[in-house]
Amino acid sequence: MIEQFSHSTRAMLAEVKGQEYYVYLLVDPRTNQPFYIGKGKGNRVFAHKQAALTRLKEMDALDDEETKQTLKIQTINEILAADLTVSSYIVSYGLTQAQAFASENALINYIKLVQGIELTNIVNGHGTRAMLVEELEEQFGYQPLDLKEIATDELILAVKVKDAFQLSKDESKEYSIYAGSRDDMNLKSRTLGNWVIGKDKIDKIRYILAINTGADNAVVAAYEVSKEYSESEKQSNGLTRYAFQALSSREETLKKLAVYKRSLPQLTFGSGSSVCYINKNKR
Q1: Residue-range domain boundaries for the chain
Q2: How far apart (Å, rounded) are the C-alpha atoms in residues 222 and 93?
Q3: N or C: which terminus of the chain has fewer CB atoms within 10 Å of its end residue's CB?
């Protein structure tokens, strides 16, 4: 049982400003029935399973009017005493506060009207399915990694793909550098190009990493690349843009470089720059 979301999961939940809210429910494993429905943001869903209410108030995790009774602490204690675990589901996320209020109210009314309904497959209007908090953390949680621990000394091109969690992970297509042939909603297409790369670097780059800078620099994609399998286009300002073909699969390369489900908080991009380099001093 996890006690809080990782930094990258919290960042994903708050990725769109003004849409940081989610609706959640707590389920009693003895009856498979929800006993509390709420709304919140950040680590709010975990507040009800915490014993230190004073500490949570200091963290602004609880409303002032909330008490042990309204938090269903007694029910939670009974579940824990039976050596069981409260199941916490995020029913919907990416909501404005007003949407969260409306969704919470609708769900409460629905539960009151219809008893014994299995809620784990509910899908809301935004298309997000109900997920256990552990599932959400598994999908979006990335553990920090020191740059020195990346498993290669070859030159790596790191590129910004801030909205990566929203993109398709389909890898079945190759994409040309030219306008109209690329897919801005595909992670592979966005990762592989097109990027302004210096002439002194293009021959040396062996890997490209997609970095979600909105989620603690989570490494969301990685591919082996080579200038030999790239296209270039010179811009009117004299700079040259490159787009690569993938010489490996995303997950295979993430694991090969030891960056699977990892983030690189030490990585920095220059002001206004969409690219940076890793291992550039080793080449």
Answers
A1: 7-140, 143-278
A2: 27
A3: N
